[in-house]
UniProtKB/TrEMBL annotation:
The gene is tadA. It comes from the Bacteria. The keyword Metal-binding applies. Zn(2+) binds at H55, C85, C88. Keywords: Hydrolase, Metal-binding, tRNA processing, Zinc. The lineage of its organism: Bacteria, Bacillati, Bacillota, Bacilli, Bacillales. Binds 1 zinc ion per subunit. Catalyzes the deamination of adenosine to inosine at the wobble position 34 of tRNA(Arg2). It comes from Gracilibacillus boraciitolerans JCM 21714. This is tRNA-specific adenosine deaminase. Belongs to the cytidine and deoxycytidylate deaminase family. ADAT2 subfamily.
């Protein structure tokens, strides 16, 4: 297919929107590309599955492992809408993914350059090339709108509860 980083990120953003439809926080749309072909994609399912590891990156890595028949995802690029957290960054290193492209920075848990850069730390036996800020505005906007709507919904529910009492 040989798409650009922006085109792959648009696909990751579509994955994040699928999470939102299910009531999940649209913080994770992940796409893994190997030899110019998407081999795995996933979105955040933490609320639905109630498991800590149900981040989009973790789910996509597991799918890619199955597709390639290996725990090693060398020569793969991971596109993700939000900067990986420490757990996901660790899994990315362990899976030997070569490159990570992310959209929005994560000011609270980002481990690909914002709080810490786990992926490029040369003390580990594997480093990952990081390309930040691809379609950053679109990825950030998706989160901003989601949380604004969530706050409005909670405010409305509280108001309705107070009216009933």
């Amino acid at each position: 297919m040989n798409l650009t980083d922006q085109e792959y990120m648009l696909i990751a953003l579509q994955e994040a929107k699928r999470a939102e439809v299910l009531g999940e926080v649209p913080i994770g749309g992940a796409v893994i590309v190997y030899q110019d072909e998407i081999i795995a994609s996933a979105f955040n399912l933490r609320e639905k599955l109630q498991t800590t590891s149900s981040h989009a990156e973790m789910l996509a890595i597991a799918k890619a492992n199955d597709i390639l028949g290996s725990w090693r995802l060398e020569n793969c690029t991971l596109y993700v809408t939000l900067e990986p957290c420490p757990m996901c960054a660790g899994a990315i290193i362990q899976s030997r993914i070569s490159r990570v492209v992310f959209g929005a920075k994560d000011e609270k848990a980002g481990c690909a350059g914002t709080l810490y850069n786990l992926l490029e730390d040369n003390r580990f036996n594997h480093q990952v090339e990081v390309t930040p800020g691809v379609l950053e505005q679109e990825a950030s906007q998706l989160l901003t709108v989601f949380f604004k709507q969530l706050r409005l919904k909670k405010k409305q529910e509280k108001l309705e509860k107070n009216i009933k009492e």
